[in-house]
Specification:
The protein is about 75% helix and about 0% strand. It is an all-alpha fold. The chain has one domain. Helix 1 (about 10-25) packs antiparallel against helix 2 and helix 2 runs antiparallel to helix 3.
Length: about 70
């Protein structure tokens, strides 16, 4: 079992997604719709944060529950 959530492949993939979303929403096409950019960014970071929180809870049951939450 990993010692920290940063070692989890699923968290690493979620972080890659966040980076991709931030890069994508910096483009001119999104530049005028600040609420859309904010919503998309918050949704992508939410998955990453839920994976981390579930891992830190310490029990497999709660971790699985947070994985389902992060799935949306």
């Amino acid at each position: 079992m990993p010692k920290s959530f940063e070692e989890l492949p699923v968290w690493q993939k979620a972080r890659e997604l966040v980076k991709y979303v931030y890069d994508l929403t910096r483009k001119e096409a999104f530049g005028r719709d600040f609420s859309l950019v904010d919503q998309i960014r918050r949704a992508s970071t939410s998955a990453m944060y839920n994976i981390a929180e579930g891992f830190e809870r310490g029990s497999n049951t709660e971790f699985i529950q947070f994985l389902y939450i992060s799935k949306g």
